[in-house]
DNA sequence: CTCCCCCGTCGAAGCGCTTCGACTGTCTGG
DNA sequence: CCAGACAGTCGAAGCGCTTCGACGGGGGAG
């Protein structure tokens, strides 16, 4: 284990000089800097993270709290996590992975122990129990997702309201008059996950504006549950020609069911999905979709947090604009 | 920020006593312990991680290196990562998330800086470039996946050879004589990812023993690529009545194709998948499958690593036994 | 009754780094 | 030609914790 002192001795300078070379907080002559850098390389020196954290009271670590639940959007979570980790590295931070398991305690532990300089919370619920703690501990934090009350908080999320609107507008523009929404599992709505409700909002208000008839049904996902949901929808609204799906696990079953009933996509029925791009592209029909910009969200979250840690930038809500990509699953409404 | 010294003062004892209460490394009288614990609670004390790491040269952090690539088994990776994080917590460790991006450098950085006490590497390739470094740095580590040379390394993985064998034996037992394997993308085989080759091994040797005819074809996944692969297979071996699929992205397309061709599952054709349980259950036919025990792997990896860090246990290769679950996609071979 | 040992506690010495103040020159402007 | 500014370097004081050796006192063994 090579130490700063050894590097200093090897380079013939004092320890503080080496420290300043490393941090750049004071000017150093070119020759000294080179000598020091050479010694660092030759000795294979790596600063000790603990000592650094102790002396500077900055750990250069960002905590990322991921949900324990794995019933939703797992690949998206993963993609966000990876984006967070790689973006953090470009800013000189490492990422500590916390699971939701510990819940609010994790916030206390991290804030108290100086393990991390700030945290990013994923899967934030409308009235998340971690928020009060976050506010009172003055822990620099960024949320991915949107709680009910955002005062004093920094949040990053997809603009789900606009997403819903975009889907309806797309279908309305193609002449569809009766559209059904296959939503997330009922539990997701009961949990008051913000994004599901905001999407619904957007869908409904756009439907109102375009004079579209909209029917929303939560759906557990999986083949059987989707079959039941679709049957009910078609029973209630036989003229339905457009589907908006916001539930990965219902996408493929829906397509299979339509196929089975002899309804051609997109000739008879159009389908628009809100889902990760991968799902849209890999489905048995290439889906017109609004994708979840996972990487963007991760990147933005880190950048907001780093800005905070540097004393730049304040509380802010960043809503990323949705983008609808037209693929093979949507087309003009059939003429009756 | 409450410190040890403040707790000590509040409790009327010396700092070292508080430290010993916390670590349990020396015996403490019951009354003193209670006084100290009370002070800790009242002041809301949390030990400073940096100081602790510096003084003890143990960070109580485990580094987890996940692949940057997101083309494979993403939910499984996530599940492993979460299992690692939660298991680590039960042993008093936190988890640092490293992406493959930094590659071997990350190993050097973590080992050198004392950021983590040990590491877990996922997605290990047969001749992984991180391995030499790992060996020479004497960094306590556990691999998830199996490299070509395991000397001096601790590894945890599913027994993919047995997995392959299990699939073939299941189909052979049902009377199937011609079985096709739809494998991972060609790139996976070119990359010499161990698990793909070991599965193939198991499949082949079991086929030999049971006198089964086996045809293996890599497949990119997705609807179109799978269609091409399946067409070729049925062209070459029209009598194929069994499929083994080891590629999440080919599962649903395969089922759709079979349905489309009027081949009923499982009456005409049996399908066995090697995939995460979620995929098997959510598919449009509930799939007979060997699932990847993600949680198990994560848990085992952490436990092996913790054992190492405690000076217990040495190098070892743990292969978890596969379990085949019979669901609705496999049945007796049709009589000709 | 004495010796020794162990239990419970304390004080002090670091762990490796950052950072502040101080010092020495060198340069610039008046 | 001198005051002041500034670049470049050093020494020393911690940051909050662990851990080692030491010490007093009570109990068991001889």
From TrEMBL, chains A, B:
Residues 2-56 form the HTH lacI-type domain. SMART domains: HTH_LACI. Residues 3-32 form the HTH cro/C1-type domain. Keywords: DNA-binding, Transcription, Transcription regulation. GO terms for molecular function: DNA binding. It comes from Streptomyces prasinosporus. InterPro entries: Cro/C1-type_HTH (IPR001387), HTH_LacI (IPR000843), LacI/GalR-like_sensor (IPR046335), Lambda_DNA-bd_dom_sf (IPR010982), Peripla_BP_I (IPR028082). This is LacI family DNA-binding transcriptional regulator. Pfam families: LacI, Peripla_BP_3.
């Amino acid at each position: 284990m090579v130490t700063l002192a050894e590097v200093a001795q090897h380079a013939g300078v004092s320890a503080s000089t080496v420290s300043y070379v490393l941090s750049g907080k004071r000017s150093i002559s070119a020759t000294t800097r080179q000598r020091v850098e050479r010694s660092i390389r030759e000795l294979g020196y790596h600063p000790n993270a603990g000592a650094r954290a102790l002396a500077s009271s900055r750990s250069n670590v960002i905590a990322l709290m991921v949900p324990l639940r794995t019933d939703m959007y797992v690949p998206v979570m993963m993609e966000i996590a990876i984006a967070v980790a790689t973006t953090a590295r470009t800013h000189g931070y490492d990422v500590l992975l916390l699971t939701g398991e510990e819940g609010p305690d994790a916030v206390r532990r991290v804030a108290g122990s100086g393990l991390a300089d700030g945290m990013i919370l994923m899967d934030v619920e409308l009235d998340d129990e971690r928020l009060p703690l976050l506010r009172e501990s003055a822990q620099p934090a960024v949320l991915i997702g949107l709680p009910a009350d955002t005062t004093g908080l920094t949040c990053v999320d997809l603009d789900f309201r606009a997403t819903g609107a975009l889907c309806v507008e797309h279908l309305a523009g193609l002449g569809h008059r009766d559209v059904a929404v296959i939503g997330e599992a009922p539990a997701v709505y009961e949990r008051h996950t913000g994004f599901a409700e905001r999407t619904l909002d957007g869908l409904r208000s756009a439907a109102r504006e375009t004079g579209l008839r909209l029917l929303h049904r939560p759906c557990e996902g999986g083949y059987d549950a989707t079959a039941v949901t679709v049957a009910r929808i078609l029973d209630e609204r036989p003229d339905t020609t457009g589907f908006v799906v916001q539930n990965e696990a219902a996408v493929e079953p829906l397509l299979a069911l339509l196929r089975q009933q002899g309804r051609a996509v997109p000739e008879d029925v159009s389908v628009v999905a809100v889902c990760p791009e991968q799902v849209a592209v890999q489905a048995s029909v290439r889906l017109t979709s609004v994708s979840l910009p996972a990487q963007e969200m991760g990147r933005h979250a880190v950048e907001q947090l780093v800005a905070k840690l540097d004393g730049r930038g304040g509380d802010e809500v960043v809503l990323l604009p949705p983008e609808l990509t037209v693929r093979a699953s949507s087309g003009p409404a059939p003429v009756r």
